[in-house]
Specification:
The complex is a heterodimer of chains A (80) and B (223). Chain A is 35% helix and 29% strand. With 80 residues, chain A is α+β, with helices and mostly antiparallel strands. Chain A has a three-stranded antiparallel β-sheet with strand order 2-1-3, covered by helices on one side. The chains are: A alpha+beta (80), B alpha/beta (223).
């Protein structure tokens, strides 16, 4: 069994309204030195294969097809 | 005109759309998302508003893989006219039938109100009954209507007259409603047969209820 952890974030340069609002809230609460906040989502997949290379290739295809909208989002894949 | 109106689990504007088109004298068919084909000789396919699949993952991201969307893509490819309203616009961008993407509104709120729109281009079947620069008053109701496209994509849209509508004030000046790039409220594809907009023309067909500016948009396809 292989676990794949996919993180999806809005691309650099695409305004992240949730990150901005949260940044503002942290400032209001007195947390200093926060330069940027980006909010994304994490998708954890359990795969039956033990072949980590094949798993990564397949998860990449899942990201391109469904999990991320590459017009506005970037993604990272971590295979465990 | 024969109008096919799609329905996904979570769609909630199919009956408003049906009511509007029947009131205007057209034949309508509501088509379940599992259908493999569209009604024969459909003159227009409407992807109506709502919350298909609960907006899970991203608005429209799952609906675009419904069986009926294969038929819609083939229909559009053959030159058929497709109109996506609100969630329908989101589905069409996710499906790659329209350029760009719709993000969460900048203020993170669900915005529901009447909104003035300026007609940017009318050399298309959707807005040909409107004048360029005309101001329309049409309700909006969305949380993910913040249209995004990169600079290159925007230049393409402008060069091909694909920007249909922009959010404006009553005098026609652009206003920021949800953070959309250059206040874009609706666009079409390059071949001008696939249209998408966040505002709801089917909710603006009775002057007594606020506005009937939606009629000339919905009727554009019939004339």
């Amino acid at each position: 069994m292989t676990t794949a952890i996919v993180n999806v974030f809005l691309k650099e340069g695409v305004l992240d309204p949730q990150g901005k609002a949260t940044h503002h809230a942290l400032d209001s609460l007195g947390f200093e030195g926060v330069e940027d906040v980006r909010i994304g989502k994490q998708i954890v997949l359990k795969l039956s294969t033990d072949d980590k290379n094949a798993a990564e290739a397949e998860v990449k295809e899942m990201c391109e097809t469904l999990l991320a909208n590459t017009v506005i989002e970037d993604y990272t894949i971590e295979i465990r | 005109m024969k109008v096919a109106i799609l329905r996904f689990p979570g769609t909630n504007c199919e009956f408003d759309t049906q009511y509007a088109y029947e009131k205007l004298g057209h034949e309508t068919h509501i088509v379940w998302h599992e259908a493999q084909t569209l009604p024969e000789d459909a003159d227009l396919v409407v992807v109506p508003g709502g919350f298909s699949y609960g907006d899970y993952l991203r608005s429209g991201a799952i609906a675009r893989f419904s069986p009926v969307m294969k038929a819609v893509a083939a229909y559009a490819e053959a030159g058929g006219k497709v109109l996506g309203i609100c969630n329908g616009f989101q589905i069409l961008t996710e499906a790659g039938l329209l350029p760009g993407a719709l993000k969460r509104n900048n203020n993170l709120h669900f915005i529901s109100k009447y909104q003035y729109l300026r007609v940017e281009n009318n050399d298309n079947d959707f807005l040909k009954q409107c004048k360029k620069g005309e101001i329309l008053n049409i309700p909006i109701a969305h949380a993910d209507g913040n249209y995004y496209i990169d600079d290159e994509g925007l230049a393409d849209l402008e060069a091909n007259n694909q920007v249909l509508l922009r959010y404006s004030d009553e005098a026609g000046n652009r206003v920021v409603v949800n953070g959309s790039v250059t206040s874009i409220a609706g666009v079409c594809n390059k071949t001008k047969n696939v249209f998408g907009l966040m505002p709801h023309p089917e909710r603006a067909i009775e002057a007594l209820l606020g506005s009937d500016d939606g009629i000339k948009m919905l009727e554009g396809f019939a004339s």
